[in-house]
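Worked Example 4.2. Consider the chain below.
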Amino acid sequence: MSTPFEERLRAVARDRYHDRHPFNVRMHRGELTPEELRRWIRNRFHYQRHIPVKDALIMAKLRTPELRRMWLRRIQDHDGQQDGEGGIERWLRLGEAAGLDRSLLMDEAGVLPGVRLAVDGYVNFCRLRSPLEAVAASLTELSAPDIMRTRIDAFEQHYGWIDAEGLGYFRGRQSQGRRDSKEALALVLDWARTEVEQELAVAALTFKCQVLWSLLDAVERGERRMTGDRPEVGDRPEVGECPEVGDRPEVGERPMAEKRP
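Applying the procedure from the previous section yields the following structure tokens:
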């Protein structure tokens, strides 16, 4: 039986997840133009390539070999254990299936400033915050498997010009997301025993939702920014700011041997 704290985390991951962003809604309805879809693939890759970077920063905070081995697997999932493997490689293949050369994806010069800012903010959050907060921020994965299934269906139905072989990343993340979110949720529930710790965890997850939402804001407005048009205010969810680093107590991690409530 889930606790009220767990229900709060699940509610944030469900209600503030970026599947509700207008750009994602249009994507899943089949309303994006090829140019819009390519712009998303290119800029989202900037986020994808930094996933193992943020995971390495989290892994460095974990104090037991068991936890580090568990988190190391996440890095290997994205980087692969050899060339031609992993989530980053599969995203490059998605780009190629959509008509983007991988050299273009690898060139960071064309990344939208708003995307760069969102990604940098998330990486620095994982670098500077406690293990509890860094792991809690990853709990957007609670909603990831469902959006992957929706995305696969949308691409197959509406974007047939993209080769089906390019959808390998979405297919792989369905099972990986379920496994990763289960492990991370168990850690957060174990570590966040006090009200202060639980509030920090909820704030961290809220911040991550804001990162993903802001990334899509930048992608959606990318064409307007290039033409000089003033973008309209987006339908951003009302969310609170994550507390400043200096305004929180130090929160460590507890050994895995301790049982969560």
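The mean pLDDT is 88. Residues 195-220 form the longest helix (26 residues). Compare this with Example 4.1 before moving on.
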